[in-house]
Amino acid sequence: MAESQSRSFGFAGKKRASGADGFEGNDLFMAKKSMLPTLAPAWENDPAAALASARHEFGEYGGVNMSIEASATFTVMEPETMRRMFAGELGPDRDFFIYSRHFNPTVLNLGRQMAAMEGTEAAYCTASGMSAISSVLLQLSSSDGHVVASRTLYGGTHALLTHFLPRACNITTTFVDICDHEAVKNAILKGRTKVLFFESMSNPTLTVANIPELSRLAHDKETMVVVDNTFAPMVLSPARLGADVVVHSISKFISGGGDVIAGAVCGPGRLVNSMMDLHQGALMLLGPTMNAKVAFELSERIPHLGLRMKEHSRRAMDYAARMKKLGFRVIYPGLEDHPQHELLKSMANKEYGFGGLLCVDMESEERANGLMDHLQNYSQFGLIAVSLGYYETLMSCSGSSTSSEMNDEEKALAGILPGLVRMSIGYIGTLEQKWSQLEKALSRMHDSTSFNEN
To answer: Which UniProt keywords apply (predicted)?
Structure first.
């Protein structure tokens, strides 16, 4: 990836000729030990606009798509160059690459896209969402460190904070109701609490966090704010609202195909660079490396993420309103009776709706399973599967699946009811065609003695 023709376009780097490793006597790039190119946030009040203004990489021979750099290691033309790269004097910001566990040009391009979308200086893409979360927490905390986190989190994140980090790293977590700002404030211990961690929209209860206020509370006590934005890409931009770091499971909406496991850390350049430090970097040393071929596929999907999110949200809003009219207990931030409906409206990027997830409370696991059975096997509305952001609707009973790492008391405190069905609304087929399939299953399940009008 060589020089840019303009701010927005760049050609993939041609092989450097012998003696042309890119520096001259009086132009030595005596680095600031900064190995990662950083972007000035390119906000135009719309993440799609920011994506469109990000640098576009062409292929090695002028292809409109960049080339896949499927190489584990990279050559240099002069032996002295390698020493300087390992010393931090030359790096990816000048198109010098060492090894793909460190930086890879194709993965770096995806990172630029993620940084543009989230409005951060830099981003690094990882092998999974959990590797992104764990690496950030390990970089920002150390032994005897303290984290304050929402009590309503994805089960894997909850298990990491509850079991693994205390045992392996002596990092403890205080869980709080993220909507109780006084409790959050009291739990953050100035000088000891390193991270306030929460999800922009909680998994699975769809509680919306007040990102500006929570960021203010944390920053008042010199604590970093890390937000998992997996449920709301394009809809919410946590960094623009005050958060320091945004993490993603790219496997979900950003991928959209249900075929890739990937993650991302988006944040300040200094933090992302520190995570790639050869001696102390959590990403560099733990090695959750993204494959270049995966990065290429994902980079081709991000440009239409905005269109997909609008349709996910449009259908989720429509189905939530119709199901509510039928008497089902529906949780969806787009409904006016949702506790954080107005909050989300005040924070959300315009035109992307209220997200593609909704929940239905069937009151018991048995009835939840019955509904999903009807929806998949009788009406073909969707699929019984974990994950989200797929073009088909995916359904799961969260208490016995994606939140099963939590015990009954923890689930009760988090508001995860036994009969809660989480639906990630897809966009395949026409809206009315899919609604007729949903309605057919709901009609079979509906018992007027079991459901109260909302």
So the answer is: Pyridoxal phosphate
Q: d(Cα 371, Cα 104) in Å, to the nearest integer?
A: 46
CB atoms within 10 A of CB 3: 8
pLDDT digits over 414-437, tens only? 777 888 999 999 999 999 999 999
The 10s digit of each residue's pLDDT in 170-180 is 999 999 999 99
Instruction: Check whether the bond before 204 is cis (ω within 30° of 0).
Output: yes
With residue 273 as reference, give the H or E element that holds it.
helix 269-275
Helix 365-373 vs helix 431-445: angle between axes, to the nearest 10 degrees? 140
Q: 126 with 276: CB under 8 angstroms?
A: no
Written as six digits, the tokens of 417 are 């009811």
Which position has the higher pLDDT, 234 or 417? 234
Please give the single-letter amino acid code of residue 183: A
**Which of 358, 416, 131 is closest to 249 using CA atoms?**
131
Question: Is residue 254 within 8 Å of residue 231, measured between CB atoms?
Answer: no
Closest of 149, 240, 238, 163 to residue 197, by C-alpha: 149
In single-letter form, the type of residue at position 327 comes to G
> Which of left, alpha, beta for 46 (phi over 0: left; psi -120 to 50: alpha)?
beta
Tell me what pLDDT residue 18 has. 39
| Sign of CA pseudo-dihedral 274, 280, 286, 287 | positive
